[in-house]
């Protein structure tokens, strides 16, 4: 920490907008799950089909929870403009009209991997740690102050790079992956930056005190940890061979 930062922290003065944004982005540089060993195996073509199935099945739990946490956030605010903007996130995942949405695109991926769709949707075979982590994220958004809840979405600042890496790596490495299967990630290349830009501006505008700003930075850490622990669980179960009772067991 430099001398100016020490002085600000000691006095409790709020960070300036640029410093606040740098503090948020520093969390991603340190903790985003693109650095996880399982992520590197997945994108590097080092997993077999059964391990990729396990990743897609477990990740569905997170995808399915996203519109629930967004609906919970919207229910808490009287800010009409925030609701008008935030509802796009639900449409992006659940779909609207002819647009099927991100959850459907994720199910196209699990279909192509040979997983039964009803089994995926039931989440019956998901790892216990996955489900605990996902529900912890939903509860965080329900229980934390609104600005902090919004801040927890700011891992989207770091998402486009991981999506580009995932698209290129998986298309190159796996015969069972094609352009249609990767449609979810391609769509997120445009959706995530739009959402992140709005959320970042909102947080920078509404986190007025030093303690509120630090709580927002902690929220980004929490969300990074939520994503990280899901990969920890996959690594433990499907790379190290410690699949818990009742969880999906690959046959591919």
Task: Provide keyphrases for this structure.
mainly alpha; Heme Oxygenase, Chain A; 0% strand; globular; disordered N terminus
Question: What does the model show?
Answer:
There is one protein chain. With 252 residues, the protein is an all-alpha fold. The protein has a single domain (16-239), classed as Heme Oxygenase, Chain A. The protein contains twelve helices and no strands. It is globular. It starts with a helix and ends in a 13-residue tail after the last helix. The model is unreliable at 1-6 (pLDDT under 50).
CATH homologous superfamily title: Heme oxygenase-like
Query: How many beta-strand segments?
Result: 0
The third-level CATH topology is: Heme Oxygenase, Chain A
How many distinct domains? 1
- What is the CATH class designation? Mainly Alpha
What is the annotated CATH architecture? Up-down Bundle
Major β-sheet profile: none
Structural class: mainly alpha
What are the secondary-structure elements, in order, as H or E?
HHHHHHHHHHHH
The number of helical runs is: 12
Instruction: Point out poorly predicted stretches.
Output: 1-6
* Average pLDDT reading: 91
Helical amount: over 70%
Q: Supply Rg.
A: 19 Å
What fraction of residues sit in β-strands? under 5%
Distance between the termini: 50 Å
What overall geometry do the principal axes of the alpha carbons give?
A: globular
């Amino acid at each position: 920490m430099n001398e100016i930062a020490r002085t600000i922290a000691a006095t409790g003065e709020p960070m300036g907008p640029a410093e606040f944004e740098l503090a948020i982005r520093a969390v991603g540089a340190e903790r985003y799950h693109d650095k996880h060993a399982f992520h590197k195996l997945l994108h590097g073509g080092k997993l077999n089909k059964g391990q990729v199935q396990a990743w897609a099945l477990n990740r569905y739990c997170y995808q399915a929870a996203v519109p629930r946490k967004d609906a919970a956030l919207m229910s808490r605010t009287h800010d009409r403009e925030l609701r008008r903007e935030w509802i796009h996130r639900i449409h992006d995942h659940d779909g609207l009209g002819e647009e099927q949405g991100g959850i459907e695109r994720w199910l196209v991926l699990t279909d192509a991997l040979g997983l039964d769709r009803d089994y995926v949707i039931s989440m019956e075979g998901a790892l216990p740690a996955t489900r605990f982590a996902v529900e912890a994220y939903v509860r965080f958004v329900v229980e934390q102050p609104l600005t902090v809840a919004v801040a927890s979405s700011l891992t989207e600042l770091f998402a486009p790079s991981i999506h580009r890496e995932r698209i290129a790596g998986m298309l190159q490495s796996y015969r069972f992956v094609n352009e249609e299967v990767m449609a979810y990630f391609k769509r997120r290349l445009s959706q995530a930056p739009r959402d992140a830009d709005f959320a970042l501006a909102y947080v920078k505008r509404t986190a007025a005190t030093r303690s509120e700003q630090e709580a927002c930075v902690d929220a980004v850490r929490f969300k990074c940890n939520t994503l990280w622990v899901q990969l920890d669980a996959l690594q433990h179960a499907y790379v190290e061979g410690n699949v818990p009772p009742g969880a999906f067991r690959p046959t591919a």
